[in-house]
Amino acid sequence: MADLIPFHDRDGSIWFDGEMVPWRDAKLHVLTHGLHYASGVFEGERAYGGEIFKLEEHTARLIEGAGILDFEIPYTAEQINQACRDVVSANDLVDAYIRPIAWRGSEMMGVSAQSNTIHLAIAAWNWGSYFPVEQRLKGIRVANAKYRRPDPATAPVHAKAAGLYMICTIEKHRAEKNGYADAMMLDWRGRVAECTGANMFFIKDGVIHTPTPDCFLDGITRRTVIGLAKARGIEVIERVIMPEELKDFTECFLTGTAAEVTPVSEIGDETFTPAAITEALLADFMELVQSKKTVAAE
């Protein structure tokens, strides 16, 4: 941990409320509503070869998520898209991670915050594989989480909202303390949902099965990989998956902007062997993002 460069103390520039500011000057007040009440939405994006993958889709989701949290980002989609590109360029990045975030400011401090200014910041930095490469190639180990994804009647589950990641951090920490790379979360009904920051896919008899995203994000990478699988003629079934079914699957992999396509070797007591379909889709996805081709998202 001692070798980590803290994110508040780096060289570079961050786009902040319409201006490119020095990295260390991109600050906000301790009484910011977004800090106290999690009234913020964000995106995670990747640039490959200087081009941001699925940028327009990410920006659309950011704007939609803000609307779900009952605020409007004061910039157009094209302004946000250009700001993301400008941040990558300003920091001389080629392969990078991009983080746009919008939040309520500090004019009102309390649950009610209709008069608060809406802020938007965009940062970008070099970031390699979310999971160690040696783990990724052989499949990562995944624990079973204790917390569950919430009922859509209790939380804005279709927004990439900051508050929804509180239990993800808890479960990611719990998993890592026990020697795992991530944790599988069930939904409030006890059905398989997702990992702490990635969607899940399972394979049996040459068919891909993936949980229906009715209480968690239908990820942009998830939809892209479904498109890649169908382009190969592989059947993809979105359905309810129960934990007791895991023993019947032979392969498992995760998808996400950070995770990309990551094979899984274990979930709790169940084991999987990354094989032909997982390897093919991992290769297809990396070829896609590196070649800047497009594929229809499902």
Main traits of this protein?
single chain; 298 residues; alpha+beta; D-amino Acid Aminotransferase, Chain A, domain 1; D-amino Acid Aminotransferase, Chain A, domain 2; 2 domains; 9-stranded mixed β-sheet; 7-stranded antiparallel β-sheet; 16 strands
Describe what this molecule looks like in 3D.
With 298 residues, the protein is α+β, with helices and mostly antiparallel strands. The protein has two domains: 13-125, 2-Layer Sandwich (D-amino Acid Aminotransferase, Chain A, domain 1); 133-291, D-amino Acid Aminotransferase, Chain A, domain 2 (Alpha-Beta Barrel). It has seven helices and 16 strands. Strands 8, 9, 10, 11, 12, 13, 14, 15 and 16 form a nine-stranded mixed sheet that branches. Strands 1, 2, 3, 4, 5, 6 and 7 form a seven-stranded antiparallel sheet that branches. A hairpin with a 2-residue loop joins strand 1 and strand 2. Helix 2 (55-68) packs across helix 3 (77-90). The mean pLDDT is 94.
| Total domain modules | 2
**In CATH's first tier, which class of the largest domain applies?**
Alpha Beta
Mean pLDDT: 94
Outline the biggest β-sheet. 9 strands, mixed
CATH homologous superfamily label of the largest domain: D-amino Acid Aminotransferase, subunit A, domain 2
Low-confidence stretches at least 5 residues in length (pLDDT < 50)? none
Counting DSSP E segments of at least 2 residues, the number of strands comes to: 16
SS element count, helices: 7
Shape verdict = globular
Give the terminus-to-terminus CA distance.
Answer: 40 Å
Helix content estimate: 25-40%
**CATH topology category name of the largest domain:** D-amino Acid Aminotransferase, Chain A, domain 2
